[in-house]
């Protein structure tokens, strides 16, 4: 144990010396009183100085260490007979994209490797050579690149597959392959036997080739759709195309876009983030540096299902919209006339600035909306009763929390994956340090996962 401490100290000293090529500036030398006065003040005691220790809120408990693949989404079933933690990983070269935690340090493909292996590969080589673009496989019954997992109000596990694997060329430059209808999908899994219970895909005028489905929330109230089986609200967060809600009727399988390209969906031009105090540009190898352009990202529902709270990732603003205007369908056979998009646009409310860019939301039974604040290694909470954003938890280990879910045990679970330090954003140099983590923190005042309010049985 002692020797490993010595190694850490040595590495720290070495870092301090190599300031010309470190991305962290070295701290200034602290001047003692003798430096100012030209002589030492006899008996002067250095006062204790206030400092930001980077920490507040409930204790952070580490639930899992990721040594193999960097995670993105997670699902937590901490109670009952079938307790389990699941993780997903976007691809890339990874062997599997949906996994289950097996112990503190290991995961395995779930439900098996076969469903994580699209026959013919992640790309459709024929379509790619025909079009000149990297085109993804259209495999509907295999997982391609799973971005998010979520537990619906009835406790069922859902899997959101972007259908868009990342392609890295020989020189280290990376892009996402374009989606082909059938590949992007929302899948309901049976957790007991690992079978697929239902799969929803999207037509090409709802999910575009450069769409990027990022997250999903469920409202299962029977009276919100004619089919009576509730809806899924899906985030199209594309950083290259169009941002919108994709609303999916779980009864009919019909889907439509809402608030397409609305200003509240879009990234703010030249909005700059800083992570761990470092102003950050994205430098993809072989390309010019730029500011992150990701739009609509965080989404959470109020416990009564009446409001959707949301924000683009690259934006300072928090928005909400009544879900009634998202549910209105003016598609080809829509029942709500042709002004649904106009009404939705006019109903958006700007709730002011968040104090950070945010890269994901979840909500709890007391109505708090948790906002992931990667610039502060923190989670903030919007309290609808006071209309204020409150501090919730902050910890230097929470570097880029990529996803959180509120679970049945009254804890919020999250994954940290150090994304801004990934090779793809750092001119081809991998700066992340394994392991990634899954953590949990206790919610205040006995709050828990939203169940009955959103139509759960
Ligand atoms: C960093 O800079 C120092 C001093 O300029 C040099 O000795 C060292 O080799 C450099 N390290 C790397 C990894 O480039
Ligand atoms: C960090 O500072 C806060 C505010 O002063 C304090 O409440 C907290 O206990 C400190 N935490 C640690 C780990 O020192
Ligand atoms: C976790 O499981 C892996 C693979 O089965 C095994 O190699 C490892 O020793 C286990 N770790 C712990 C902490 O039990
Ligand atoms: C690609 O084309 C070849 C030759 O026509 C065919 O055998 C193969 O099945 C095609 N692959 C896919 C994924 O369609
Ligand atoms: C998927 O693509 C293959 C090859 O292009 C094609 O033969 C097949 O019909 C497609 N499947 C669906 C469901 O569109
Ligand atoms: C999995 O379980 C569900 C419900 O418990 C059942 O309907 C289905 O037939 C099972 N599938 C398999 C392959 O065992
Ligand atoms: C659905 O039912 C709930 C509870 O009865 C009610 O509060 C809500 O207004 C209804 N929603 C719609 C869209 O009718
Ligand atoms: C719309 O209705 C027409 C005629 O009733 C039908 O042929 C068509 O399939 C429907 N389209 C959709 C998207 O439901
Ligand atoms: C807001 O007020 C409602 C009604 O009094 C209460 O049930 C809920 O717990 C409160 N939520 C917060 C975050 O204070
Ligand atoms: C990226 O690395 C290349 C060399 O591989 C270098 O020429 C270029 O200046 C670097 N870009 C930035 C923004 O540091």
UniProtKB/TrEMBL annotation:
It comes from the Eukaryota. PANTHER family: PROTEIN YELLOW-LIKE PROTEIN, PROTEIN YELLOW-RELATED. Keywords: Secreted, Signal. Residues 1-18 form the signal peptide. GO terms for cellular component: extracellular region. Belongs to the major royal jelly protein family. This is Major royal jelly protein. Its main location: secreted. InterPro entries: 6-blade_b-propeller_TolB-like, MRJP/yellow-related. It is found in: Secreted. The keyword Secreted applies.
């Amino acid at each position: 144990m002692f020797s490993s401490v010595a190694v850490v100290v040595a590495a720290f000293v070495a870092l301090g010396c190599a300031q010309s090529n470190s991305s962290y500036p070295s701290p200034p030398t602290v001047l003692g009183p003798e430096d100012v006065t030209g002589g030492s003040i006899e008996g002067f005691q250095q006062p204790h100085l206030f400092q930001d220790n980077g920490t507040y809120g409930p204790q952070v408990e580490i639930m899992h260490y990721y040594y193999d693949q960097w995670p993105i989404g997670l699902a937590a079933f901490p109670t009952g007979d079938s307790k389990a933690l699941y993780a997903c990983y976007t691809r890339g070269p990874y062997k599997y994209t949906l996994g289950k935690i097996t112990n503190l340090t290991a995961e395995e493909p779930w439900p098996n490797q076969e469903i994580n292996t699209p026959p013919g590969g992640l790309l459709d080589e024929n379509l790619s050579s025909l079009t000149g673009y990297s085109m993804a496989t259209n495999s509907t019954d295999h997982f391609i690149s799973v971005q998010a997992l979520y537990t619906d109000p009835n406790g069922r596990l859902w899997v959101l597959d972007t259908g868009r694997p990342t392609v890295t060329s020989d020189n280290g430059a990376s892009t996402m392959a374009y989606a082909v209808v059938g590949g992007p999908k929302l899948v309901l899994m049976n957790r007991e036997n690992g079978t697929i219970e239902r799969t929803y895909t999207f037509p090409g005028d709802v999910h575009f080739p450069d769409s990027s489905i990022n997250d999903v929330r469920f409202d299962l109230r029977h009276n919100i759709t004619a089919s009576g089986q509730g809806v899924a609200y899906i985030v199209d967060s594309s950083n290259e195309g169009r941002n919108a809600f994709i609303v999916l009727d779980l009864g009919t399988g019909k889907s439509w876009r809402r608030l397409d390209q609305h200003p509240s969906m879009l990234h703010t031009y030249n909005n700059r983030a800083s992570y761990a105090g470092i102003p950050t540009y994205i430098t993809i190898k072989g390309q010019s540096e730029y500011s992150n352009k990701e739009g609509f990202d965080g989404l959470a529902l109020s416990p009564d299902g009446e409001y959707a709270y949301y924000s683009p990732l690259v934006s300072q603003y928090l928005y909400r919209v009544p879900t009634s205007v998202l549910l209105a369908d003016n598609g080809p056979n829509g029942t709500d006339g042709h002004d649904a998009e106009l009404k939705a646009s006019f109903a958006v409310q700007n709730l002011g600035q968040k104090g950070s860019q945010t890269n994901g939301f979840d909500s709890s039974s007391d109505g708090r909306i948790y906002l992931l604040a990667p610039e502060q290694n923190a989670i903030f909470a919007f309290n609808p009763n006071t209309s204020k954003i409150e501090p919730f938890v902050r910890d230097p280990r929470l570097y880029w929390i990529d996803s959180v879910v509120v679970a049945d045990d009254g804890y919020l679970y999250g994954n940290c994956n150090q994304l801004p330090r990934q090779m793809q954003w750092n001119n081809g140099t991998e700066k992340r340090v394994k392991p990634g983590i899954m953590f949990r923190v206790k919610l205040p005042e006995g709050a828990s996962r939203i169940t009955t309010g959103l139509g759960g049985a």
